[in-house]
Design brief:
4-stranded parallel β-sheet; Rossmann fold; globular; alpha/beta
Length: 208
């Protein structure tokens, strides 16, 4: 059986780099995966010529994690735009509802290698080699620390994983546009972005 590498898509800060590196290693015999993406050209009819692996996460945690990675001086409105643009693409993939898209939820897969391998093998109807899976478990374990992970993972830096990958938006007050008095965004934009975020949270069955 010839395996064709998938497109790896993910909402920013939803573990897509982690999944990308796992898949790149599993598919290294056929050239690996070129890159991961955070947006898709949904008008491109050839998009699903290949399979797509899509990662997502509680989008409030994506916002907090993204802001922490980029430092607090990054404009929150920019992060909202970036996250919501990815969510539009994610919703498009959900509407396709076919056997060419595998959705991986961060809260289920993070550091759960057995879960990831099982989902990928079911998706491809193929069993990956035990040697590769053992190598991935040994080298991509978060317990190795950022300093070691960035040496073996593509697109990974020393600050990539924060709080052990367990960022919780409830511990932060500066992620929500509505909570920021005097923030340079008009109230209509704040309300529009908040409504859009709530819509996507409900769509992906997160508690609002």
């Amino acid at each position: 059986m010839t395996l064709n590498p998938p497109i790896v898509f993910g909402v920013p800060r939803s573990g897509s780099t982690f999944i990308f590196n796992i898949i790149d290693k599993l598919f290294e015999d056929v050239g690996g995966v070129d890159s991961q993406v955070h947006t898709l050209d949904i008008k491109d009819k050839s998009l699903l010529n290949n399979k797509v692996i899509a990662t997502y996460r509680d989008f409030r945690n994506c916002i907090v994690s993204y802001r922490k990675l980029q430092h607090t001086n990054t404009k929150l409105i920019y992060i909202y735009y970036k996250i919501l643009n990815s969510l539009t693409c994610l919703e498009y993939l959900k509407e396709l509802s076919n056997d060419k898209v595998l959705f991986l939820k961060y809260e289920d897969f993070f550091q759960n290698f057995d879960y990831i391998f099982e989902k990928l093998e079911d998706f491809y109807n193929y069993e990956f080699s035990s040697e590769k899976k053992e190598w991935i478990i040994e080298n991509f374990n978060i317990e190795n620390g950022n300093n070691n992970l960035h040496k073996v993972m593509k697109g990974f830096n020393k600050h990539h994983i924060q709080n052990g990958g367990k960022t919780n938006w409830k511990d932060y007050e500066d992620w929500n546009l509505l909570n920021l008095e005097g923030y340079p965004v008009d109230i209509k934009t704040k309300l529009d972005f908040t409504a859009a975020l709530k819509y996507h949270l409900k769509l992906w069955e997160y508690e609002v």
